[in-house]
Hints:
The protein is mainly alpha-helical. Helices cover 62% and strands 0% of the residues.
Amino acid sequence: MLEYAGSRxxxxxxxxEGAALVGVLRSLDWLLVAGIxxxxxxxxxxxxxxxxxxxxxxPSYYLNRQIGYAIVSSSRSRDSSPTAPAAEATGAPHCVxxxxxFSP
Length: 104
């Protein structure tokens, strides 16, 4: 679509994107997000305490590495969205178990 100086369609798409963002933020499970953040913080605190004396001239060497890994893993989890279940994507047969827990 062609836009010109007096066009309002650009404003409309920005409003639509803003409404979509608000919808996504409302649908998040904030308790789960806070729990994951807490687990990451406790893990980083533990790594910092345990490995403080491992590298002589850089006491936060392993902590900095773990912070980098946490940032990379959080950015990768948003980018990876599987399009098909793993069993169907790999061609693996589906396993159906009986009520007793044993496969036939």
